[in-house]
Input
Amino acid sequence: MEFVVGYDLNEFKRYYKKLATDLEWKKTFGYSPELGDLWEHILSRNPSQLIIFKEKNEIIGHAIWHPTNTKEHRKRDPREKEDTEILEKLLGGKKDFIELHEIWLRTEHRGKGYGKRFFKFFEEFIRNKGYDSIIYYADYPAVVAICRERGYREACGLKYIEPQGNTRTFHVFYFSTRIQHRWEDYYSTLKRLPRRFKKPAQFVVEAVPIFKHSNVKKILDLGCGVGRHCVQLANTSFEVVGSDISKSALKMARNWLKEEGLMDVALVQAAMTHLPFRNCCFDGIISVSVIHHAVKKDIETTIKEIHRTINKNGLFLANLASVKDPRYGTGIEIEIDTFRILEAFEDNRFEELHHFFTKSEVLKLFANFAETGVQLLKDKPNYWRVTAKK
Ligand SMILES: C[S@@+](CC[C@H](N)C(=O)[O-])C[C@H]1O[C@@H](n2cnc3c(N)ncnc32)[C@H](O)[C@@H]1O
Output
C-alpha cells in the first residue's frame, strides 16, 4: 500500500460515489455521497490536500486536509463558540493549524496497520510542508486509539448534530509536528536493550529503604521504558505496575521481566497525562527521566494525575531536569524553559522535548502534596531529585 498525494479528481469522485453505493460510507458518516462543489473546487486548486491510500492500482482509502484557524473553518465560515474555545485551549494560544478533515479506509482493508501508517506519514508530510499543528476530530474507536497511542493531546466532548438530526460526540485531538517526540519511533528501531537502560538509577536504589520504611507495597513506575526499575523493584519484593506511552518499550520490558521470572508485573500503555488507574491505588509512584519530556501544560496535568492515583501518605519520587542542565537554552525554544533538543542515542538522532525546572517551580507544581523535598541529585546535579508525600 502506498500513499499518493494529489490524484485525478474524476477517478477520486468515482471512488467516493462507490463508498456511498457500497453503503459503508453513507451508513457510518451520513455525509453526502458526492464530493460536493466546494471540495471539488478546493482540491482542484490545491491537489496536495487529497491523499490517497493506493493498493494494486486501486483506491482503498483517502484523507482530505486543509489549513484553517481557531475562529473560522475557512474565510466567512465561522466556527461554533464551543469549538473555538476547545481549540484555543488545546493549541495553547496558536491560531492557525491543519485540520485533518476526513480520513477513510475501506472496510476490507482495516486491521492491517494502514491507519497507523497513515498518521505517521501525515505528521511527517505536514511537518515537511512547514506547518506545526494538526487537529483531528475523531469518534471512530480505532482512530481514537491511534491518536492516543501517538501521544496526541486530547479534548473530549465536542457535540455535532448531523443534518439527519443524530448527535455525534467527537474527541478533539491535537498533535504538534514540532514538539512531539515520538518515543515509539525511537524504541521500535532498537535492536537490543541500550546499555544506559540496563542498571537502575542510583537514586531509585537508594529510595528502596525509604519506601519499605513507609510501608509502600504497590508502586507505579510511570514512564517505565524498557523496565529497568520494574525489574529492580519487583526483585525487591514490591508489587509493581509499569506504564509507558510506547508499545515497543513495553514489549522490551515484558521480555526482560519474563527472563527474570517476574511475571506478576503489570505493564500498561498509557500517556502520563491520562492514567488509566483508580484514585488512590498506589502507595508509591516513581518516574525516572520522564515528566520533563513534555510541555508545561502536560506536566501540570501529569502531576494532577499522580496526586489523584497515589494513596494518602503515598510517596512520589522522580528526577526532573533542572535549569542548571548544560542543555538548557539549546535547541529550539517552544515555550518558557521548554526546548526541542536534537539528541543522539544509540544509532538514532532525534528531537527530545525538555522542560527545565527551577526549584521554586517544582515546589509550586507539588503544592497540593503535604510534603515536598527538592534537591539536586548527588551523582547527576543537572537533575532535581523530587520527593513528595500526599
Ligand atoms: C528517558 S526514558 C526513561 C525510561 C525509564 N523511566 C528509565 O529510567 O529507564 C523516558 C520514557 O518516558 C516515556 N514517555 C515520554 N513521554 C511520555 C508520556 N507523555 N506518557 C507516558 N510515557 C512517556 C517514553 O516512552 C520513555 O520510555
Remarks:
- The chain has twelve helices and 19 strands.
